[in-house]
Amino acid sequence: MDFLDGNFQVHGFASLTLVNTSDNNFFGQSDDQISNHFSEVGLNASWRLTPGLQLSAEVLSHRAGGTDDGGVRLDYGLVDWTALSSEEGRGGIRVGRIKTAYGLYNTTRDVPFTRPSIILPQSIYFERTRNLTVSADGADIYVERYGEAGTLSASFAYGQPQTDTDAALVALVGLNRPGHLDSRLAPDLQVMYEGAGGMYRLAVTATRLDLRYKPGLGDRLQAGRFKLTPLIVSAQYNAETWSLTSEYAFRRTSVTDFGPFFYNGTADGRSYYLQGTYRLAPQWEALVRYDAYYADNDDRNGKAFAAATRQPGFTRFAKDWSVGLRFDVTPQFMLRVEAHRVDGTGFLAVQDNPDAQALRRYWDNVMLQGSFRF
């Protein structure tokens, strides 16, 4: 909806997903039941005060099993000032709660219509730690350069990640911990090239999270530290009726100073996916994807981890074959169906699977989603 000659706009979306798995629990699904505990509702607005100054904000309710209860929160809220603008490019700064540039999809991951699938590749875009990387409170400096060869853009953000949710705490230190997480300001750099009118997209993203655990009363854990430094290389080719996308992440994780009752150490993780989409007809699109995640590239099968912790080794990796189908009933209403065959449980949430010994290495997952936008 547009107001004030298009300078003030309001848009929204809502989606509900039904989830069923053969084993394990995903988005609140329990064995032999269908879960409806994956939903998204958002309302956003933008107001262009001048050609170079815009206010934007979105409130979001995101429910995802035990990792998110669907409470309404500010997803982003910022002032965007374009300080320089010409036919050759533009540059400016965004201040407030800003979306984190992370791979190709993170800045728009909450809107179902902008995603290639019901869930994004979990090797890159974890749902269980979504709030740590989706947005931050700080500033983002950006520049874009236009030319005959394409568009070259870069952004550098510096902000405070969202560590005030149980989901972030549980994903890193487990259930029933009395302490809390703090974070230093996190840098985020992304450089992207788009050529031939968007036919080619190449990007590199580098970020760093420095998290501190503050023990609570009677805590068995000491004041530990997490350092997460992912580097993501992204590539996409878009033809008239098909697209091919791949992203590869180098992810170093350092866990120190938690004491003898926690798994301390440093691991160089690897994750990647290869995804193809094909437009069967104007309203139909098919998807196939292979997605792989390894928490430690030197211990891909998790045997060393299992020996040290007595936890299943397959909790340290996940290999996911996915197929999906999208049907745009109208420009405002979309239906999707998606099936996954997974080896490993590396991206499952502890909240939905508190007993690691009850997990099954091989499992299937089928999802059906309906989405509406205005």
Describe the structure.
It is a single chain. With 374 residues, this protein is mainly beta. The protein contains 3 helices and 19 strands. A 16-stranded antiparallel β-barrel has the order 2-3-4-5-6-7-8-10-11-13-14-15-16-17-18-19. The termini are close together. The relative contact order is 0.14. The mean pLDDT is 93.
What is the topological layout?
Layout: E1 2-3, E2 8-21, E3 35-50, E4 53-64, E5 69-86, E6 89-99, H1 130-134, E7 135-147, E8 150-161, H2 166-173, E9 180-183, E10 186-195, E11 200-207, E12 209-214, E13 225-238, E14 242-256, E15 265-281, E16 284-294, H3 303-309, E17 317-328, E18 333-344, E19 362-373
Antiparallel strand pairs: 1-2, 2-3, 2-19, 3-4, 4-5, 5-6, 6-7, 7-8, 8-10, 9-12, 10-11, 11-13, 12-13, 13-14, 14-15, 15-16, 16-17, 17-18, 18-19
